[in-house]
Write a structure and sequence with these properties.
Mean pLDDT: 83
Helix content: 25-40%
Strand order of the largest sheet: 2-3-1-4
Order of helices and strands: EHEEHEHHEE
Radius of gyration: 20 Å
Distance between the termini: 47 Å
Largest sheet: 4 strands, antiparallel
Strand content: 25-35%
Shape: globular
Number of strands: 6
Number of helices: 4
């Protein structure tokens, strides 16, 4: 079964350029969806159906070339399932909530005075 790669792009990216790059790589217009947002938030999402690792690498390279902010991979998902933006958005929110955020650097100050050791944040 196919997988879906979904990318979030910033407002400085041009979705038309992304579409051209995808089609120049041999990805037919029926294999991807661009979700445009009509609000002031000018971010947009794109989902591409991929069939194997080589295809996924090609799509990832195109996404990176077009300044993707975040990429999600959904295994065993069809493009028809990804066409429901609200459902896809809920799946992305679940994945984003499950990610472990970066922790700040922890510096441990060690002294020979025993109890005077401190952990600095």
């Amino acid at each position: 079964m196919a997988s879906i790669i979904t990318g979030l792009f910033n407002n400085h990216s041009n979705y038309k350029t992304l579409e051209i790059d995808l089609e120049n790589a041999g990805i037919d217009g029926s294999q991807y969806i661009v979700y445009l947002n009509n609000s002031r938030d000018e971010h947009f999402w794109t989902s591409v159906q991929v069939t194997d690792d080589a295809h996924a690498n090609t799509v990832s390279e195109i996404f990176n070339k077009n300044s993707v902010s975040k990429t999600y991979l959904f295994n065993d998902m069809t493009l028809q399932e990804a066409s429901n933006y609200e459902d896809l958005k809920k799946r992305i929110e679940v994945l984003a909530a499950a990610e472990i955020p970066n922790t700040p650097d922890i510096n441990i100050k060690e002294t020979d005075s025993g109890i005077d050791s401190q952990v600095q944040f």
